[in-house]
Amino acid sequence: MDPAAGAAFFIIWDKMTDTAQLLRLAKPVVDRYECEIVQLTFVREKPGWVLRLLVEKSGSDPFVSSGIDHGICSGISRELGELLEGDEVIDKHFVLEVSSPGIERPLTCLNDYRRFTGRRVKLKTSEAVDGKKKFTGKIKDVKENAILLKTDAGRKMVEIDYNLIARANLVFDINLLEKRAGER
Q1: N or C terminus: fewer CB in 10 A for the chain?
Q2: Residue 145's pLDDT band (cuts 50, 70, 90)
Q3: At 178, which helix (H) or strand (E)?
Q4: Average pLDDT over all residues of the chain
Q5: Residue 59: left (phi > 0), alpha (psi -120 to 50), or beta?
Q6: Are 150 and 140 in contact (CB under 8 A)?
Q7: Which residues partner with 9 through β-bridges?
Q8: pLDDT for 183 beyond 50
Q9: CA atoms of 1 and 167, how far apart (whole Å)
Q10: Each residue's pLDDT tens digit, 41-70
Q11: Which own/partner contact pairs does 152-159 have at CB distance under 8 Å and 24+ positions apart?
């Protein structure tokens, strides 16, 4: 998946940094570990600036495993840290964190919604849709640029324009986990 096509985010508050350059540096490192970038953020937190990279194995199911372990995270962190130090892309002191996106992973591109059709998600929109900005429900379908969601509240179908989604993530579903365990 091409990070420039939406698989990764880069958020920065007070400095212009070349996002494309950071992704160009990170992608080959992540690729060597047969992983994909889920999300890349650069934010100011209490300890200072944090560059956070969420990665997972291609095609992994977060309810089973992201395929990521400590060795992969530390390897990516070490290699990317060396590249960032040498390239001087970021002119601030920062902490680099590399981790799995977790069981309630963020959905960061339209392909994520396609991949997780049938799963429960929680999302927030930038504008009201049917009078609401917060939704929880099951992804029923993905049209060209819209998500069809069967909401938990009222069990009604809502079509949400992808461009209105401010943030979204999978929701842990114990029933799905038990069903998957029973299939083994």
Answers
A1: C
A2: very high
A3: helix 174-183
A4: 85
A5: left
A6: yes
A7: none
A8: yes
A9: 19
A10: 888 898 898 899 999 998 898 888 888 999
A11: 152/120, 158/129, 158/130
Paired residues of 55 in beta bridges: 37
What domains can you pick out in the chain, each with its CATH number? 3-99 (3.30.300.70), 110-183 (2.30.30.180)
The pTM for the full model equals 0.81
Q: By mean pLDDT, which of 82-96, 102-116, 153-167 is the weakest?
A: 82-96
Confidence of residue 14 (pLDDT cuts 50, 70, 90): very low
Name the amino acid, one letter, at 66: S
For residue 110, the model assigns a pLDDT of 95
**Mind spelling out the 3-state secondary structure of 63-118?**
CCECCCCHHHHHHHHHHHHHHHHHHCCCCCCEEEEEECCCCCCECCCHHHHHHCCC
**What is the rounded CA–CA span in Å between residue 8 and residue 55?**
10
Tokens 């179908």 found at? 157
- Could you give the C-alpha distances from 126 to 67, 129, 132, 160, 162, in angstroms and in order? 32, 9, 10, 11, 10
